């Protein structure tokens, strides 16, 4: 399957460089699970860049009219109604978590307005860049909600400034790209707008795509494991993981490339299991 064949009505998928997948959000975000789960099984992909196709904004967040429709056709009985609403929230969470469970690194390039849902999406990515014209907001409290599809679960594991993180979550105030960098939410602020930050993200993606796909995939897998486990648990798990991965042919290819001074050509990963 070509990457273009993964595209949906609202998400455009392309390959601007070998082994790089570019996912551009046109409007609706609920296709993210479909698209990223498909990309996860593409053996030629080594890194993904996620951006908005819209020139002036990344995302303004969930449509309020759609939010109001969540309770449509639900049971009048409180317990059953709660179960139905919970199922809807879990479905939304699954859409965003598809980015994180993708075995390949995901670099997000944000620009312009990036409210609410934008934070959920970005927090699920591995590397976060922002254009200098970006304006962020953890917007959910302004519509009477605690953020429930990723921000409050992931941001505390990301942010280096927890006082600022709490302030932003409680107030829903706007914050700039510079403040997002201060928070530790983004690692780079790129001067300009969409095209500039996308170019920077693609440049990093090209660099990653030239590395051993076994090493890069393993690094993401082990970093996520480390986030959710103790140091000793991760060390033990890494020993087991690398007892298999150290047998990769990629190491021999790298050693040969050093001698020949040629860029190593790594074999495709092949079909990956649904869960590592």
Description:
The structure is a single chain. With 276 residues, the chain is of the alpha/beta class. The protein folds into 2 domains: 3-209, 2-enoyl-CoA Hydratase, Chain A, domain 1 (Alpha-Beta Complex), CATH 3.90.226.10; 213-260, Orthogonal Bundle (Lyase 2-enoyl-coa Hydratase, Chain  A, domain 2), CATH 1.10.12.10. The protein has helices spanning 32-39, 64-68, 78-101, 117-123, 151-158, 162-171, 177-183, 194-209, 213-227, 231-245, 249-260, and strands at residues 11-17, 20-25, 47-52, 57-59, 106-110, 113-115, 127-131, 135-137, 175-176, 188-190. The strands form 2 sheets. It has a 6-stranded mixed β-sheet, with helices on both faces. Strands 4-6-8-9 form a 4-stranded mixed β-sheet. The longest helix has 24 residues, at 78-101. The model has no long low-confidence stretch (mean pLDDT 91).
Give a quick rundown of the structure.
The protein is an alpha/beta fold and 276 residues long. The chain has eleven helices and ten strands.
At CATH level 3, the topology of the largest domain is: 2-enoyl-CoA Hydratase, Chain A, domain 1
* Binned strand content: 15-25%
| Helix share, percent | 40-55%
Read across the widest sheet, the strand sequence of neighbours is 1-2-3-5-7-10
One letter per element, helices H and strands E, the order comes to: EEHEEHHEEHEEHHEHEHHHH
- Major sheet size, sense and barrel closure: 6 strands, mixed
The residue-averaged pLDDT reads 91
The shape is: globular
Pfam families: ECH_1
Pathway: Lipid metabolism; fatty acid beta-oxidation
Organism: Rhodofomes roseus
Protein name: ClpP/crotonase-like domain-containing protein
């Amino acid at each position: 399957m070509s990457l273009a064949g993964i595209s949906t009505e609202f998400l455009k998928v392309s390959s601007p460089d070998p082994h790089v997948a570019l996912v551009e959000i046109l409007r609706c975000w609920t296709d993210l699970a479909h698209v990223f789960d498909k990309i996860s099984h593409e053996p030629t992909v080594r890194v993904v860049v996620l951006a908005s196709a819209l020139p002036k904004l990344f995302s303004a967040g969930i449509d309020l009219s759609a939010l109001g429709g969540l309770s449509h056709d639900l049971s009048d009985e409180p317990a059953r109604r709660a179960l139905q609403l919970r199922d809807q929230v879990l479905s939304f969470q699954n859409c965003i978590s598809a980015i994180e469970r993708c075995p390949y690194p995901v670099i997000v390039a944000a620009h312009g307005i990036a409210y609410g849902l934008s934070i959920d999406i970005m927090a699920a990515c591995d590397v976060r860049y922002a254009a200098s014209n970006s304006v962020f907001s953890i917007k959910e409290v302004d519509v009477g909600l605690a953020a429930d599809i990723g921000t409050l679960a992931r941001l505390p594991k990301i942010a280096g400034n927890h006082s600022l993180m709490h302030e932003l979550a409680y107030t829903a105030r706007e914050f700039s790209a510079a403040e997002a960098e201060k928070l530790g939410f983004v690692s780079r602020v790129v001067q300009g707008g969409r095209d500039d930050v996308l170019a920077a993200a693609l440049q990093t993606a090209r660099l990653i795509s030239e590395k051993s796909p076994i090493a890069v995939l393993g690094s993401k897998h082990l970093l996520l494991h480390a986030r959710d486990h103790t140091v000793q648990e991760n060390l033990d798990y890494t020993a087991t993981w690398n007892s298999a991965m150290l047998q990769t042919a990629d190491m021999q290819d790298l050693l040969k490339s050093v001698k020949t001074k040629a860029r190593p050509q790594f074999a495709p990963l092949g079909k990956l299991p649904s869960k590592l």
